[in-house]
Amino acid sequence: MLNDPEKHGQPRMFKISNQLVAMLNRLPKATDEVFGKTQVKSAESSLRLQRNRAATKLGNPRLRQIHFHTLRHWKATMEYQKTKSIIHVMQKLGHRNINSTMIYTHIIDIETKDEYHSAVAKNIEEAGKLVETGFDYVCSHEGLMLFRRRK
Fold it and tell me: Is residue 114 within 8 Å of residue 149, measured between CB atoms?
């Protein structure tokens, strides 16, 4: 449970897998807290060290642009793409203001981008499968149903 979120957002609980619990339990600990008394600065320093190593090893300098908040933006965007529910994402992130969530999900970029995958369904079963995979119904033409989703 995250009881005291940064910037006084909504407290919330996270479900984690048994595998993650097992990995966390294998970490060396000096206290009952999962990450001990780790300071934000030391966590940032560790991330910087790891991403610089990865950038050098993989020959990809863009990896140096990854920060903790990059991961938060990525998760918010992926949740929105998966659920199409800005309220769900807002609750997941613990935001009190929907405008903050809109910034994290990059909805403006997504909604103004006009690149689509298209698909055609010949019957209701095919249409159902397309909707389940994120396609939106557009129209029907000569007995066929047309769908699209953003790239």
Answer: no
pTM over 0.70: no
Q: pLDDT above 70 covers what percent of the chain? A: 80
> Cα torsion for 50, 53, 57, 62, to the nearest 10°?
80
Sheet containing strand 144-150, edge to edge, reads 116-121, 144-150, 136-141
d(CA 58, CA 44): 21
H-state helical runs in 7-106? 18-26, 40-58, 68-83, 86-93, 98-105
What angle (nearest 5°) sits at the alpha carbon of residue 116, between those of residues 114 and 118?
A: 145
The first and second tokens of residue 40, run together, are 């934000």
**In this structure, is the dihedral angle defined by the CA atoms of residues 135, 73, 13 and 48, taken in order, positive or negative?**
positive
What pLDDT digit, counting tens, does each position of 53-100 carry? Answer: 998 999 988 888 888 778 888 888 888 888 888 888 888 888 887 888
